[in-house]
């Protein structure tokens, strides 16, 4: 089966529909599927629900889909960096479901692993627990959280082979692995597609079974908070 | 004189023991890393890293290498990377010995509020709820009172909680308090702070 496509628009052809549910990888602006997000913007698909840890910034990441009002709902743990997001949220144009970060990651992992729900102690006694089933195990209280089953997963990796085996680089792995697994279809954008056999099979971060379509492209990889130390201090 | 930010961070570093895996929150907790001395401490960053190093030199920033505050950082010889689900599995699973984090309010029963002020812009809890529910020991570092002079060490939290009954120790500019049966116990006073001053600044029940 051919998994390699020419560009982001081709890789998303036939997969997008209004009202769909998309799981996206990335943490802040690190390891986000920037090319696929741009292609979704250009496709004009509307009423999207995104499971994504963050919502990008105003002009990068999911932020570009907020500018065009293509997003109906976000499921995220932290959205602090996006002024347009806050404006739409406060005016009631955008739905927001806060998930604790680990709960969001586990909901994706569970969905991808065929697990419809799991119990966690995260959020017990907080607003997050309201309306959720509570259950005691060995004297401790847990709440039921549901697995995420998305229509589409979009992720960004460092390298792929043509069978979809992926490796990530440093902290850009983040939500990309659990997000990739919880989509019915997963499209991955990578910095480099390498020949079959050139990735070490012992060092594959995400096996190609989870990845259906791949594109290679140039990434801006924007830095959100550039922090440095002076050499004299070293 | 109450402790300043760096003195509070230095005192919090005393909580850490050789060999510990630790998660440090944003703000004063980040400064704790400067005071661990010779202790062999491994810092976890919940976006997917164990063995977090210092900020990079100018020109060596890597967009693929950030901490949970989205700041550019560096790796160490011991560093390991992993995905977010694995990261929170080790947090929820109790593998991280301690979290040191800031707070808006702490109550005498260990309740913690540090993510949301109703009516103000809500940015989200990030990984804070998972951390306080999962790690072995939660140490809060914060000013004892808010900018209006009101106690942040309360009988009950007024803000929405991050976790219920999760705090073990509170380090403030006035001293150190432990959450114990029936309320808080004074562990030590900041240099030059009297016990009366600390009691006067504390709304919570002090049991000793």
Automatic annotation (TrEMBL), chain A:
Gene3D superfamilies: Glutaconate Coenzyme A-transferase. PROSITE patterns: COA_TRANSF_1. One of its GO terms (molecular function) is transferase activity. Keywords: Transferase. It holds the Pfam family CoA_trans. The keyword Transferase applies. Belongs to the 3-oxoacid CoA-transferase subunit A family. This is CoA transferase subunit A. It comes from Ruegeria sediminis. The lineage of its organism: Bacteria, Pseudomonadati, Pseudomonadota, Alphaproteobacteria, Rhodobacterales.
From TrEMBL, chain B:
Keywords: Transferase. The keyword Repeat does not apply. One of its GO terms (molecular function) is transferase activity. It holds the Pfam family CoA_trans. It comes from the Bacteria. Belongs to the 3-oxoacid CoA-transferase subunit B family. This is CoA transferase subunit B.
């Amino acid at each position: 089966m051919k998994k390699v496509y020419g560009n982001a628009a081709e890789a998303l052809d036939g997969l997008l529909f209004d009202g769909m549910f998309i799981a996206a990888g990335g943490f802040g602006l690190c390891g986000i599927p920037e090319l696929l997000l741009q292609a979704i913007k250009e496709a004009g698909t509307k009423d999207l629900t995104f499971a994504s840890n963050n919502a990008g910034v105003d002009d990068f990441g999911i932020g570009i889909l907020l500018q065009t009002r293509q997003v109906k709902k976000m499921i995220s743990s932290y959205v602090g960096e996006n002024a347009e997001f806050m404006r739409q949220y406060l005016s009631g144009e955008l739905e927001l479901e806060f998930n604790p970060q680990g709960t969001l990651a586990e909901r994706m992992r569970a969905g991808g692993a065929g697990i419809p729900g799991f119990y966690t102690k995260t959020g017990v006694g907080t607003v997050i627990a309201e309306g959720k089933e509570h259950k005691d195990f060995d004297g401790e209280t847990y709440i039921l959280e549901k697995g995420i089953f998305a229509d589409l997963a979009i992720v960004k990796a460092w390298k792929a082979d043509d069978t979809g085996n992926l490796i990530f680089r440093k902290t850009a792995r983040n939500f990309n692995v659990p997000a990739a697994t919880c989509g019915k279809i997963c499209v991955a954008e990578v910095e480099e597609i390498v020949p079959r056999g050139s990735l070490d099979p012992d060092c594959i971060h995400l096996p190609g079974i989870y990845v259906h379509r791949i594109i290679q492209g140039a990434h801006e990889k924007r830095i959100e908070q550039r922090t440095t130390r002076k050499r004299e201090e070293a | 004189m109450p402790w300043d930010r760096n003195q509070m961070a230095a005192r919090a570093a005393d909580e850490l023991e050789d060999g510990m895996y630790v998660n440090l929150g944003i703000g004063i907790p980040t400064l704790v890393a400067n005071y661990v001395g010779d202790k062999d401490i491994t810092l976890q960053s919940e976006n997917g890293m164990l063995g977090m190093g210092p900020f990079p030199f100018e020109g060596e920033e890597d967009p693929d290498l950030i901490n949970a505050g989205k700041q550019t950082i560096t790796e160490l010889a011991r560093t390991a990377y992993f995905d977010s689900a694995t990261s929170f599995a080790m947090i929820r699973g109790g593998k991280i010995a301690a979290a040191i984090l800031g707070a808006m309010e702490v109550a005498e029963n260990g309740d913690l509020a540090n993510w949301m002020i109703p009516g103000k812009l809500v940015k989200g809890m990030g990984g804070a709820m998972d951390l306080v529910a999962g790690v072995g020991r939660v140490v809060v570092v914060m000013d004892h009172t808010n900018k209006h002079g009101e106690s942040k060490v309360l009988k009950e939290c007024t803000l929405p909680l991050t976790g219920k009954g999760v705090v073990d120790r509170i380090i403030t500019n006035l001293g150190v308090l432990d959450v114990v049966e029936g309320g808080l116990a004074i562990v030590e006073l900041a240099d030059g702070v009297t016990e009366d001053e600390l009691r006067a600044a504390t709304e919570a029940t002090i049991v000793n």
